[in-house]
Specification:
By secondary structure, this protein is α+β, with helices and mostly antiparallel strands. 33% of the residues lie in helices and 32% in strands. The strands form two sheets. The chain has a four-stranded antiparallel β-sheet with strand order 1-2-3-4, covered by helices on one side. A three-stranded antiparallel β-sheet has the order 5-6-7.
Length: 134
């Protein structure tokens, strides 16, 4: 999926691109450029894909992470779902070991938590400014 647009999300960046089915998906990349999570290609526009990536950090406890063995072949993959199993994000590849897959999911979650932590900090700074504490 060639990248066509990008936005900063926490400590990483999210790029959107068009897939072979004509729909858009996103890829979340860490600071080192490594892809740590992807979406299914299910969005009609690149802006919709980027908006979904930005919103993912706000899903919080409503989203559920799961690690599963690949149905055919060798390896482990992780997915983040919401509601009735709608996939929000998945691992960019299958991992040979369960522990490696679990660590990769942890890196993905840490990037999202960084986004949430930054948002809380901005709100707290705004509240302090309103009270004249800055």
């Amino acid at each position: 999926m060639p990248a066509v647009a990008e936005v900063l999300v926490g400590k990483g960046r999210c790029t959107a691109g068009r897939a072979g089915n004509g729909l858009y998906g996103w890829r979340l990349k860490a600071v080192n450029g490594r892809v740590v999570g992807v979406s299914p290609a299910q969005y009609r526009t690149e802006e919709a894909a980027l908006t979904a990536c930005r919103r993912l950090s706000g899903e919080g406890v409503e989203a559920h992470a799961r690690i599963a063995h690949v149905h055919e072949g060798v390896g482990w993959v992780w997915t983040v779902t919401k509601g009735e199993g709608r996939t929000l994000a998945r691992s960019p590849r299958a991992y040979e070991r369960y522990a490696t897959c679990r660590k990769a999911l942890g890196v993905f979650i840490a990037l999202l938590d960084a986004e949430r932590a930054e948002r809380v900090e901005r709100v707290e700074q705004g509240e302090r400014a309103e009270r004249g504490e800055l």
